[in-house]
Amino acid sequence: MQSVIIGTAGHVDHGKTTLIRALTGVDTDRLKEEKERKLTIDLGFAPFDLPSGRRVSVIDVPGHKKFMGNMLAGIGGIDLVLLVIDANEGVMPQTREHLEVISLLQIKKMLVVLTKIDTVEVEWLDLVEEEVREELKDTPYKDAEIVRVSAVKGIGIEKLKFKIDEIIDTLEPKDINAPLRLPVDRSFKMKGFGTVITGTLLAGKVKKDQQVDILPQGLTCRVRNIEVHNQPVNEAYAGQRVALNLAGVEKEDVPRGSVIAQPGFFKPTDRLDVEIEVLPDFPYPLKHASRVHFHIGTSDLLAKVYLLEKKELLPGEKGFAQLELADKIVAYYQDLFIIRFYSPVKTMGGGRVLNVNPGLYRKYGEEEMAELKLLAGGSSEDLVLQQILRHGIISPSELLKEAKLAEKELDELLEKLLDKEMIIELGDGYLMALTVYRDWKKRILKKLEEFHKENHLKPGISRAELKQVLPDKLTTQKYDLFLEKLLKSGEIRLDQYMVALASFEPQPIKEEEKILKEIKKIFADKGIETPGIKELAREIKIDEKKVQEYLEYLMYLGEIVQIRDGYYLSVSVLNEVQDKVVNYLKEKGEITLAEARDLLESSRKYTLPIMEYFDQINLTRRKDNVRVLI
């Protein structure tokens, strides 16, 4: 049976909590301060049964403007909103602001509930209904039904329940196969159980004893117990109000704004590309680089808005923007959000998330803007592109799992995206958005240019050091595939350990050439008894770090070889040694370390690493206490 969440909205003291008590028998004002002040400050929740037998949950949100943030934390994820209006007062300021929020969050269904009808004349009720119709005429809810009730006397409550039943029949089912996502709106400690969180299960399902992520904190824990409608269950589904008893975490670890999520699926972000709109009646424009209050799911934080196409958005206008958030959050493609003016705090607009893994807005050009426009279209093709964008690099099997499409349909969409040059293919079929590839390539090439400028003798930068300019969670496998793509494009030079620009060649200056000549002479003269880095630094009177650079350069030229850490030989000396050992083995069949030492007329200190080096290059193989040719 369809799981449904109902929410209330409306001006302070218009009877939302009393209405819910009439529907459910539960007083949702749970805080002492709420009882004393007779107004709802935080969110309240209660289940009730409809005439059809359905059990639904209702959320009571505060109406007072001071507690608008709490209202926004509760209103997301609901299927049907009851806009509660006091028949005595009619439409009031918070009625309008709540209506704006409901419209911006695209809540599909609304019922208008006129309360306290027992305190006014019928003629007055007709006038109030006309006022409500006038208020709704330019909104998505112009055809919303209006139900007259007296919660105190029970008038119209049964009719309201029947109307709710009728609307629920028209709702689309929730996606229980999507990745688990549950924004936390309450967390508390329960004696004998430990930490309990509550929230509306937006997508997917959660099972008892399942491992879940707590984001953006990056924690993992086990779901010890689950309750739905105050009853223990083994599994909960999208669309239900859920209480989870979490093992191994404190209530402070999962405050409001946290998200309980499918392990490994969501990545917290502090930057979003969005499409944003300013309310038509808002008195000010939204200016580039403005600070705003940002509300998404149950999160409430500050953000900076960087407009991507113009310097300001006038009331009633839409545009693309990048949001720089004060903290990391969890968001998903097409998530809806609200922004409120920084000061005085008032709802000014909202929008939807287009990209949760964007580059820096300052680097956006025609390609990036075209991509945003494509994402704003909201088709299956856009969703696939968003998944690829979010991962940076993704395998076909990962994409098939996350896009929730048939394999044939996904293949067709990928062909279209490849034809449009929105994505590119790496090795092993891995995929990458072209804009991300270009962004990463810029980062890599810039780092290489900087490195070569500062280290003109070094043949390249280590793979590990270069990887630091890319996202932290990029796996080595995907990083290697990305480097291979750059290699094939002729941008870089690559070996097992080092990366360099394809156009770069280490080039010593005149003074360095003299020192290099001196080092080569020392290696030629010393045979296999070459000095280590410290001794060499003392001998030629330069620091050890510089000696290391000179040795790496000579290895790049192929003039010396590293036998082991800190021990190098000239190639010509090594070749002579190799010839001696090979000839000996061809004649004798095997050689001991002592025989090798005598053959090379040296000590064990130098002979052992040379013989181990021959093992490593598969020239010889150790067999008990002797070595033989392979």
Automatic annotation (TrEMBL):
Record keyword Cytoplasm present: yes
GO cellular component: cytosol
Record's keyword annotation contains Protein biosynthesis: yes
GO molecular function per UniProt: GTP binding; GTPase activity; RNA binding; translation elongation factor activity
Classification via PROSITE patterns: G_TR_2
Boundaries of every Tr-type G domain copy: 1-174
Compartment list: Cytoplasm
Main location per the UniProt record: cytoplasm
UniProt keyword terms in alphabetical order: Cytoplasm, Elongation factor, GTP-binding, Nucleotide-binding, Protein biosynthesis
Record GO biological process: selenocysteine incorporation
CDD domains xref list: SelB, SelB_II, selB_III
PANTHER family tied to this protein: ELONGATION FACTOR TU, MITOCHONDRIAL (PTHR43721:SF22), ELONGATION FACTOR TU-RELATED (PTHR43721)
The protein's role, per its UniProt record: Translation factor necessary for the incorporation of selenocysteine into proteins. It probably replaces EF-Tu for the insertion of selenocysteine directed by the UGA codon. SelB binds GTP and GDP.
NCBIfam families for the chain: selB, small_GTP
Name the record gives this protein: Selenocysteine-specific elongation factor
Organism encoding this protein: Anoxybacter fermentans
Source species taxonomy: Bacteria, Bacillati, Bacillota, Clostridia, Halanaerobiales
